[in-house]
Amino acid sequence: MRYELYYWPGIQGRGEFVRLALEEAGAGYVDVAREPGRTGGGVAALMDLLDSDSLDHPPFAPPFLKAGRRIIGQTANILLFLGARHRLAPASEAGRLWTHQLQLTVADLVDETHDTHHPIASSLYYEDQKREARDRAGHFLKSRAPKYLGYFERVLAQNPSGERYLVGARLSYADLSLFQTVAGLGYAYPGAMRSAGRRYRKVTALHDRVAERPPIAAYLASPRRIAFNEMGIFRHYPELDR
Ligand SMILES: N[C@@H](CCC(=O)N[C@@H](CS)C(=O)NCC(=O)O)C(=O)O
Q1: Is 118 in the pocket of ligand 1 (CB under 6 A)?
Q2: 11 Cβ inside 6 Å of ligand 1
Q3: Which atom of ligand 1 is nearest the CA belonging to 110?
Q4: Cβ–ligand 1 contact at 180 (below 6 Å)
Q5: Residue nearest to atom 4 of ligand 1 (CA)
Q6: Over its length of 242 residues, how does the chain's per-residue pLDDT go in tens digits?
Q7: Which of 78, 168, 219, 238 has its CA 20 to 30 A from that of 100?
Q8: Measured from the CA of 76, which atom of ligand 1 is nearest?
Q9: Cis peptide upstream of residue 59 (ω within 30 degrees of 0)
Q10: Which numbered atom of ligand 1 lies nearest the CA of 11?
Q11: What's the alpha-carbon Rg for the chain, to the nearest Å?
């Protein structure tokens, strides 16, 4: 079965967390909105599903994943589904819940990162909320980002199976998501993150290990990986990187 991923073209965004899981699993998928030439492709196909009145389980926002007849929305929920199908999470209930908990914490960090450049409203331009963004980014870099990264550092240190992975002794989708978040923070805030390698050694080592995994390294080097840019969640505005 070929999965269909529905996400905005041109940005990594939250769709990237799903792409990384699909790539690591070697799963076949179509990135629907990025294939406008394909029948049933392009942003129109995404909008058709978002606006549809005939779905039993309509998604609120991208990303959403079509798996056969099923349509699954919410990034953490999609990963919960893929994790079980592709051994990207433990099989036990306790292990699945723990992985999901970590993913939800990553999602909180991603939301807070987004709000550094859009503290007032997503519907406004960054240029219309620059002053508030400066304040928000200042607080984020001083206290919130260190709190999250320190938490993940502690999770790695306290993993009874060792510090290579967040959950047990195998890679999970939570590791892939932490990789993406650390990469994004490094892009957006290179100045503030300069000392992160020293302060969060285990998190940084995890990031580097994930980047070197053959399926992930191949993906990162491929045209499927969209470059970070100032339309996505992780944006580099030098004036915010203090
Ligand atoms: N909690 C959702 C958030 C989804 C979300 O915010 N999607 C963005 C793109 S990354 C979007 O298009 N939102 C439209 C909206 O909220 O109206 C998730 O993690 O998937």
Answers
A1: no
A2: no
A3: 19
A4: no
A5: 61
A6: 899 999 999 999 999 999 999 999 999 999 999 999 989 999 999 999 999 999 999 999 999 999 999 999 999 999 999 999 999 999 999 999 999 999 999 999 999 999 999 999 999 999 999 999 999 999 999 999 999 999 999 999 999 999 999 999 999 999 999 999 999 999 999 999 999 989 999 999 999 999 999 999 999 999 999 999 999 999 999 999 98
A7: 219
A8: 19
A9: no
A10: 10
A11: 18
Six token digits for residue 174: 């939570």
- Residue 224 corresponds to which tokens in the numbers above? 């499927």
Interaxial angle between packed helices 145-158 and 201-212, expressed in degrees from 0 to 180 and rounded to the nearest 10: 80
Which amino acid type is present at position 37? G
Q: pTM of the entire structure?
A: 0.98
**Residue 62 contacts residue 46 (beta carbons within 8 Å):** yes
Specify the residue for token string 């080592």: 205
The residue written with tokens 């939250």 in the block is 14
H or E element: which one contains 67?
strand 64-67
Residue type at position 24: E
